[in-house]
Target: PLP-dependent transferase
Amino acid sequence: MISRRRLIQQLSALPLMGGLMSFDLAGASRLIQPGATTPATRNYFQELGIRTFINAAGTYTSMTGSLMTDEVKQAYLETSEDFVDIDELQDKVGERIASLLGCEAATVTSGASSAITLGTAGVLTGTDPEKAKKLPHLQGTGMKTEVIMQRKHYIDYAHAMENCGVKIVYVDTKDELKKAINRNTAMYYFVNFLNYEGQIQWEDVLEVCQAHKIPTMIDCAADAPPAESLSKYTDMGFDMVCFSGGKGLRGPQSAGVLLGKKKYIEAARVSAPPRANTVGRGMKVNKEEIVAMMVAIESYLKRDHKKDWALWENQVNLIKKGVDDIPGLKAKIDVPVLANVVPTLNLSWNTKQVKISGDQLKEEMRKGHPSIEIAGGGKNSVSITTWMLKPGQERIVASRLSEILHQKSM
Ligand SMILES: *Cc1c(COP(=O)(O)O)cnc(C)c1O
Model:
């Protein structure tokens, strides 16, 4: 039995019992009273001395993606009360998501990255668990070994395929693509937001790959909004489509979906938990996230996207107005075409007239109270979006930005 003294020692090691210095937004410290009963809500970030901030940057993984909607949070809490069979849950949730989006099949993954890994694994192994055990070792197994992508589509997330042991073969042109296909070709990987960067666009890739019976995967991680994207690429003919759950969809940050042909989704599941002797075992998604991801998609489809857009536009315009009169500064509202498709305020300036660098401006915004994160940076530019703001925060961003830039342009 634990001694009374040990118990007291252990209890006093707990932050709330021991009396902990914590820091509020203004940086002032205050003491949480020892012996106080646990408050109804704890401010964990404050307790930990963690800076929270207004996110005027966007859906960055390092900034914890997006905020889950109330419906998603509710689903998370309510599903935490019961035990279920995880495969049965994935089956049913997958069916529901597929029917909502009008594709053959779907499964919840631990993010778009894991959708890429599991999809690749499935293409290699089919539904054979013995093959799944062998990944990432392909040599001498009879499994295919190469994935083709365009050099211009290179992104760091391509590593998610290499986890399965495949080698990436790079091409630039349609002709090179045709020549690169051989009996070791397992799959083609397409990065949606880079479509116009590459020389081979959606239709041409699909034409060549379908003619050679090469499965195609498209990475659309950050490409909703618009909502149509959720169905567009499976409709277009891609065999597998990967989305992040914790970006524009506002599901759990550590969830995502793999959508597509039944055959490939079933094969991907062979490398997914609860199965353990697989490359995907560390990509567990708990029951709460599985359901929350489904709810995120349901509520995303129901949203009034026009209203969201009007709000973002108003907010971005408000922030723009605060800096429009600054000599030597150019403020422009752009909308990216394929990913992060939201009104984006791009600011750039002549540093002889506005005497601050982009990086310094970011730091100034960060250092204020409340702290604000914006995107871009470097020598003389930054960019700002409003879709991750809570209502009203646009005014704080507008006044702080205007204040700093006016000060630096005097
Ligand atoms: C964010 C992103 C990923 C990774 O998505 P996660 O859901 O964080 O795993 C992959 N590809 C692209 C293009 C992305 O933007």
Summary: Residues 305-321 form the longest helix (17 residues).
